[in-house]
Amino acid sequence: MASPITWTVHEVQEAVSTNDLARSHAPWSLVRCHVQTGGRGRFNREWIGQEGGLWVSYNVPLAEESTSDWRLLPLVAGIALLDALKPHRVPDARLRWPNDLMVGRKKLAGILVERPSATMATIGIGVNMLNSMADLAGKTKDAPARMADYAAPCPAVDEFAMQLAQAIQTDFLAFVQNGMQALMPKLEQAWGKPRTVEVQTDQANYTGTFIGITPDGSPILRRKEGDLRAIPGHTVNRLIEL
């Protein structure tokens, strides 16, 4: 049996980006700040991180030869987020491919995974918890959600950071040992009800019902003609729920 892993915790009051701070720390470190002034999502979209939310980055080790596998880590982190939320009974929590956690059609959390070195990935996560929604009014593409309005009761931010650390450790190690297949049963239940989406690539746009993903993380659509089409994940610019 593997020895238990202890996370090394680094906490600061304010940071431009916890992912940037995490780069200088070892695997199995987490960096959390109370206020994040320059948080970012995919394609460098702004993430507003005010007091009361969870703005945190988790470093995990990678094998040097890992190439495509690390790009599946947003999905691994998404499953970990859902696992950490389960005890708090947040209704209608689901994933939106590839890196968002939604409550219904509102966005509760976002994920940004970067690879600062050949042997480490940094999983950056922002979760709206107790932060003011007034600060986000008109500033986000998706309507925001926060745990305080759904969880009963809402955990303390530092408490949830460690619950999430444990979930990331569990799901990441399952992924490392057995590949994406180890998490596919959870992922099959992670997307909520079927939704019509548009998948945008450089070559074409595809519309259909999102029904899940392939083992390599690519979204699968059921098109109106009835056929299934997997869109290679690395070609997707955006997936928009209609």
From TrEMBL:
SUPFAM superfamilies: Class II aaRS and biotin synthetases. One of its GO terms (molecular function) is biotin--[biotin carboxyl-carrier protein] ligase activity. InterPro entries: aa-tRNA-synth_II/BPL/LPL, Biotin_CoA_COase_ligase, BPL_LPL_catalytic. One of its GO terms (cellular component) is cytoplasm. The keyword Ligase applies. The keyword Ligase applies. Pfam families: BPL_LplA_LipB (PF03099). This is Bira ligase: biotin--[acetyl-coa-carboxylase] ligase. The lineage of its organism: Bacteria, Pseudomonadati, Verrucomicrobiota, Verrucomicrobiia, Verrucomicrobiales.
